[in-house]
Amino acid sequence: MNPLAIIGNVVLTALGETGRLSLFTWTAVTHILRPPLYWRLIGQQMMRIGYFSLPVVALTSFFTGGVLALQIYYGSDQFNSESIVATIVALGITRELGPVLAGLMVAGRAAAAIAAELGTMRVTEQIDALTTLSTNPFKYLVVPRIVAAVITLPALVFVGDVIGIFGGFVVGTQSLDFNSGVYIKTTVDFLELDDVTSGLIKSSIFGFIIAVMGCYQGFHSKGGALGVGRATTNAVVISSILILAANYVMTSLFFSS
Amino acid sequence: MSSPIPTKDAKIELKNVHKRFGKKIVLHDLSLTIPKGKSLVVIGGSGSGKSVMLKCMLGIIRPEKGSIKVDGKEVTRLPGSDREKVLTKFGMLFQNAALFDSLPVWENVAFGLIQGRNMRRKDAKDIAIEKLGQVGLAPEVGDLHPAELSGGMQKRVGLARAIATDPEIIFFDEPTTGLDPIMADVINDLIVNSVKELGATALSITHDMASARKIADYIAMIYKGEIIWAGTRDEVDQSGNEYVDQFIHGRADGPIQMDVLKP
Ligand SMILES: Nc1ncnc2c1ncn2[C@@H]1O[C@H](COP(=O)(O)OP(=O)(O)OP(=O)(O)O)[C@@H](O)[C@H]1O
Ligand SMILES: [Mg+2]
């Protein structure tokens, strides 16, 4: 095959996919803005996406906080390491690692689960059946998941922030022999509200990415078990990449000034 | 093509509908009228496009060409919210039942009442239990999940869901496949009753000629995406159409050739 034709094909496919995804996202957003919302379903999804992700996010944050403390300690000159460790752990967790790690963990859990569930509903014609029962599948399936993810991710990340800082504190006081009072005071003094809120805003966007990608892949899966499997993989891989890319963009926007 | 189905007072009217998947043409210039308050049965070989035709009428699949009118109103290019309004007139039994496997059986049946009509859950449940009774399922079945049912039971739950909202138009995609002959006849009676007593317009797809003879006012035969014959139930035996004759007598020899390897 002509190499130019291959390149052309790839570009066309990518453009087509981007167009479809944009249209899907737009449709979903217009349905969020137009009542009614199914609050019962939103609550159900908040449990699934948020509450059940708590253990994973808590463990990840705890160990990340701890390992961050160790690395900063070894990397800094050990002279005034106490305040440096506390500061950088707090900033690193709240600004970057908390939201990104929680985003990636929830992408693995929730985006996969959403894609698999909606994908199965698609290939077994359950989504078509919804339509014939005069229920809009966007309102009934997509909107609750997006709203739930956008609300619960910041909550998850907030908990993760606290636990991550606590992880740094535990390592600092237990194995690096820092004074616990000084560690806490430094953390509180240096940490600003903006550090935390920027992370929470980021995580909200990540939640949006996760839910939209999971729903989009599920909605467009075809061809039985194989297709659902492919949709699930795509949902996790693509949402993870988008989370990292969006994180870069947002960091450069938030912290450039 | 003979067309003795009366075209005035049509509930649904398809004209020159065309649908292809990639290179494969599935519906080819398909025209069909479903008279109001009557029961039409469409027969035809496996893969001839029957299910696709139903989905086109429901707007689940969008045909490339042609017109589909419901109560005289064109529905092929409707925007979402108007489509939803039209769909409140319909009930549909899917070929594979397509039950919501995350919901218990009764909520499947009551779904159109709760979501579509905003009925209170308790009232909707009572109706759901009653409809389950009409398809021969005990009230206890209502609390099971679809995965816990046999294939025939799932089909009947699908039927109960299709008729739960007392729709004006009901589509049955192979209502009696997978059922024993006695239960099949119960379902036939149920379909006849829906049309006679509730005044619904019914479109059924079936391979089961006994069932077709029982529930049909009119019969149409689809072959290669086209309606090749249509007439009243009694005319089907003297159709003078070789394709119809071969089909209703289930003969392997005839103008319809199945693509199978002969030994
Ligand atoms: N979503 C789809 N994508 C591609 N091809 C399809 C799709 N749906 C149906 N087809 C094709 O359209 C043709 C008609 O399918 P359809 O399901 O309407 O058959 P049918 O008449 O209902 O058959 P059966 O009696 O076996 O149910 C088949 O050849 C099938 O391969
Ligand atoms: Mg079919």
Keywords:
heterodimer; A: 257 residues; mainly alpha; 87% helix; B: 263 residues; alpha/beta; six-stranded mixed sheet; four-stranded antiparallel sheet; 8 helices; 34% helix; globular; binds adenosine-5'-triphosphate; binds magnesium ion
Quick overview of this protein structure:
Chain A has 257 residues and is an all-alpha fold. Helix content of chain A is 87%, strand content 0%.
Strand content of chain B: 15-25%
Which chains make the largest contact? A-B, 16 and 24 residues
N-to-C order of helices and strands of chain A: HHHHHHHHH
What's the main sheet of chain B like?
6 strands, mixed
Assembly state (oligomeric): heterodimer
Query: What is the percent of helical residues of chain A?
Result: over 70%
Secondary-structure element string of chain B: EEEHEEHEHHHEHEHEEH
Largest sheet features of chain A: none
Walkthrough of the structure:
- The complex is a heterodimer of chains A (257) and B (263).
- With 257 residues, chain A is mainly α.
- Chain A has one domain.
- In chain A, 87% of the residues lie in helices and 0% in strands.
- Chain A is built from 9 helices and no strands.
- In chain A, α4 runs antiparallel to α6 and α4 runs antiparallel to α9.
- Chain A is elongated.
- The model of chain A has no long low-confidence stretch (mean pLDDT 91).
- By secondary structure, chain B is α/β, with parallel strands linked by helices.
- Chain B contains 8 helices and 10 strands.
- Chain B has a 6-stranded mixed β-sheet with strand order 6-7-8-3-9-10, sandwiched between helices.
- In chain B, β9 and β10 form a beta hairpin.
- The two termini of chain B are 35 Å apart.
- The model of chain B has no long low-confidence stretch (mean pLDDT 88).
- Adenosine-5'-triphosphate (ATP) binds next to α1 of chain B.
